[in-house]
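Researcher: Last one for today. Full complex below.
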Amino acid sequence: MQLIKLNATDSTNNYLKKLLLETVLEDFSVVVTNHQTQGKGQMGSDWVSEKGKNLTFSVLKSKTSLLLHQQFMLSIIVSLSILKTLEEYNIPKLSIKWPNDILSDHHKIAGILIENVIKNKQIEYSVIGIGLNVNQEAFEGLPKVRSLKHILGVPINKEELLHQLIKNMQHYFNILSEKGAAIFNDEYESYLFRKNKPSTFMLPDKSLLTGIIRGVTESGKLQIQLEDATKEYNLKELKLMY
Ligand code: BTN
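Model: Here's the assembly. Have a good evening.
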């Protein structure tokens, strides 16, 4: 594995994408930094992480042969790789808050931002950005956020954790190339936060909707059972409230 360590950068996703314009990189090349000055989150949000405390990194994945409409499969594989790693660290009560927030007992501990480069309706390569809260002790103004140190009570070796994460990611991508995408859906859904429970969602006009999460479609839409029908929603159409 090619590992590029940076003291600081704006965003490891941006750094890796720029590097790919100039260089050919091995599959699973990793860019990791101690400090992101403009870390990016989902839907245009910021990803803020205390200098030196957490894992902020991006992984290059090429040759998945996934078509554009299958891009959610990357989210599934990356989420499952993170969960497997965290289970190995005995992190309890893990779940995935759709589409790809990783929670331990209702608290967010990791986020994923995948950026795909598309050519001829196929994903040419993906830049998989992961922010994992490892040793940070306080998250001001973010009551629903925790780090592994909070949960385990001891500091964690970030390098070892990063290697374990990449190893597990390689494992899941190998399964994808051997057995295809379909087999991951049940495993993903088994971790789905609030599955089969009545939940409240916020729509883009800020109105609230109540329904029961039943699953996720192949394209990553959330299936919600409403009073009279089951409807499918994409990421931009609703937000699950806690
Ligand atoms: C989210 O939950 O909103 C996604 C957060 C993703 C953060 C990671 S940190 C490494 C990589 N570089 C970025 O700028 N963002 C991702």
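Helices lie at 12-22, 72-88, 148-152, 158-179, 185-190. Residues 11-13, 36, 39-42, 45, 47, 56-58, 101, 111-113, 129-131 surround biotin (CB under 6 Å).
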